[in-house]
Each structure stands twice: as C-alpha cells, then as structure tokens.
Amino acid sequence: MGLIEDVFSGNERETLESIVDNAIKLSGAQTGSLVLADDDGGLFVAAGRGLLDKYIGAQINSSEESVSEHVFKTGEPLIIDDHNCSQFSRRKKREGYSVSLPIKKSNGGVVGVLNLNRTDRSFEEENVPHLEALTVNIAIILEENNLRRRREHIIVALSEIVELFSSLFCIDTSDDVFEKIFYSVKTLTGAREAAVFKLSKKRPYLIFERDWPKQLRWRAFTEVDDQIQNSIKQKKIITTEYRSRDFFLFIPLISQNHPPYLFVGILREPITIIDYLVLSIVENMGNATLENISLYQNSKRLTQERERNRLARELHDGLAQILVATQIYIHLLEKSLEEADPNTLLILQKIQSLNKLGLEESRFILSELKGKPITPLQFREKVDEAINLFATPDKEVKVNYKVEVKEIPYQVYQTVLKILQETLSNIQKHAQAQKVTIHIMNSKQQMTFSIEDDGIGFNSEILEDKESEHFGLKNLKERVRVLRGKFIIDSKPGWGTKIMVKIPLPREKTA
Known about the structure:
With about 500 residues, the chain is an alpha+beta fold. The protein has helices spanning about 1-5, 10-25, 65-75, 130-165, 175-190, 225-235, 275-335, 340-370, 375-390, 410-430, 470-480; strands spanning about 30-35, 45-50, 80, 95-105, 110-120, 195-200, 205-210, 240, 245-255, 260-265, 395-400, 435-440, 445-455, 485-490, 495-505.
C-alpha cells in the first residue's frame, strides 16, 4: 500500500474504490481493478474488488505483455471472450470473461486501465460506451489529484527555496549561491544534472557542476545558440528540447553588479507556467544574493584600499619626511666633520647608510600599501632578504632566478614571497634538510616558483584531510587558488619535499 498512500489521500482512495464498485454493479461484473501508470511509466494496481490485499499497490510484471499493458499502449477497449484470448501468453485458456477500458486524460493521453471480470457470460460491445463514461470520471479525479499534489509540491518547494536562500550571507561565495539554485531547481523539477557557465566574449566556460555529463561543454549548445542568446539578452528563463525525452533549462543570472552567468539544468519534462513563475523567483533571489556578495566584496576591497592609502599618507607625511630631513642633516654634519678622526667618520657613515636603508624601506612599504607592481630587481632583493632571514648558514641554498618581465603584480609578488617565507620556516623547523633549491622564473603566461629540500619529507596526502593541522600550507594553497594558480606538494617520508607553484600573469601592455 505504500505507493498508493504516497499518491492518493484516504478520501481519494475511497472514491476510486467506490468507482470500481459502481462499475461492477453497472456491468454485472463480479470483480474489478483499476490499474494506473506511475511516474516511470510502469503500471500498478490502484484499487480493486475481489482481489487479494497484497495485489493492491503492487506493480504489474512487464516481462510478458498483459491485457492491461496492451490496452494502455493501444488506447482501445478490449473484450476477452471465447473468441479473443490467445494473443496473451497468460490467456491461452479462457478462465472467465473480461473487459478492459483505457482511462484517458482530456488531451487523449492514457493514464490507466479499468478491468472488469465475470464468469457467467461475456461482455457486450454495446455496453462499452456506458462503461467509458465511468472512465471519464476516473480521469477527472486523477487530474484533480495531480493538480492537488502539484500545488502541495510547489508550496513545499517555495518554503524550502526561501529557507535555502535565507541561509546565505554576504561572506559566502558564488559557488554557495549556485549550490542553492541547483537544489531549488532540483526540488521543483526533479533535475539531477546542472552546470553554471561564466559568460565571456570569447567562449563561456564551466565554473560549477553537479553530475554534469563530461561531454556537455559550451559547444554542445551550438544548435540552440540563438535561443540562448535571446535568453541572455532578455534575461528570460527558457527550455529547449535535448535528445528525445529530456530538456535543457536555461536560467540567465545577469546583473551590472556581478559577472554574468548562465545556469543550465537537464529536465525530464517541460516546465509548466507555475514552474516558470517559481523559477523566476529563484532567478531573482539568486541574482540578488550574487549582487550582495559582489557588493560586499567590492566594499571590503575599497575599505582595505582606503585604509592602505591612509597608512601610506601617514607614512609618507610622517616617517618618510623625518628620514629625508635626517638624511639632509647627516649630510651637513658630514661636511662639518671633514677633519674629524676616522672612527667618528666611520660611525657617521654607518648612520648615513642605515638612514638611507630606512628611507628605501619606507618607500618600498609605500608601494606595498598602494598595491603597486614591483620590478624584477626589487623582487630579487626581497627574495634574497627572505632567504637571509629564514635560512640558517648550515644549509646550502641554491637560487635559480630568471624573471624577465617589466613588472610583477603586487599580489603575485606577495604570494610567492609568503610561500618562500613559510616553506623556508618549515624546512628550518621540521625538514632536517642540508640542501635547498629554489627556482623562480616566468613565461609570457605565468610565474613559476618551486622550492625543494633533501629533508625527511612527510605524507603530503594528509593535507587533503579536513582535520589536518597543516594550516600554513593550506593557507598558501588557498592564496594560490584565489589567483587561479596551481599549488602542488610532492613529498614522501624519507624522500624530501618539493613545492611547485604556477600563477597566471596578466598580459604585458604593448606600446
């Protein structure tokens, strides 16, 4: 009875049984059954009289075509009597008389079969129209039941969708939003496969997927490109046929406040007008959430930039000016002490060198605060400085530095330097290494950095464990991911460790 209880309410089951009873009385039958199609197209017994309880709700075995299956497929009534039984394997020998009538929806589609049986005499064809009137009533009840279930489903779906999006915050990511949209579409339509493409002038590319077929990339939509472009232009949800039974669902996520995306789902049946309205709500909620996240990130970035500029002004107008003035006075003092003893002059030169170094450092910090690109020479100086600070004299450090770009983006420089400092610190504390090799170089497309030691190594697979305590390395990996780079650790116990990093570089501007 489980399937029946899921589909029909108690009152509806009583009504179906009452219709079977009336059909039995009207036709003079002794037993009867109502067979309906489930969502997968299989047939099950929904109601009956004169049947064992175990058959109510049971699926009909489709290994050999039955009378019910035949009528369901043909949509035509069938009378089984002395002259018509041999075409069905289970009716080689007549054991009674029966009539089976298709139950048709208003659009002509068959949704079930009414079977009536008796043993005393066969059913007459002139009685079939009277029985067909009963099947019309059954079809009406079924359609009303479908509408009720659909309304209940939409109410549940809406409440779940609202709850899903209410759990999102500005600090979440766009992937979190795509996840919520996917579950909303799945809840409403039953879609199991979905993807999100980020739209670009060259070719949109996949950035999110759930059970998405590997062969379905953007070029797979060539045949429906006009519809997609129209959907994007008008910011309108559309569906198009895909293969023989499935459909593509396209939901454009377009706004001036966040990058343009296109959500694509694979549906088993076309959406209704109610589905469309609910999906429009999902689209609006998804867009609003993406906007909030984007605006929050922009606000956070602007706040950080303002704070950096404020600190830069304070440094420029304060410490940097003091150092410049001090350098002038030291220069004047040096002229007035030309006849002083050598030790005094040496001390003065040391002070002058330190002050000059402080001035250069303050200027570099100003560049850092403003996020300005740095030169390869400045980068090399910082690399050497990090090696001197974090590598001890007992280790042999070999550096292969070959950077041939006009300037290095501040974020790239900062990320490579952080990785260098963290890994050198780890080598010093844990690796027990004697030799360290560092490679820093670039191509037109990317900056490549690697650091390798001959220490004791470790099992790098534990980094994938969420409970792992290697927070430093995980943070470095996240830094590289933000820059759309690759971070690879190759290490085994007793075999040393090698960290390889590749970070994309922006194209250099040509004159």
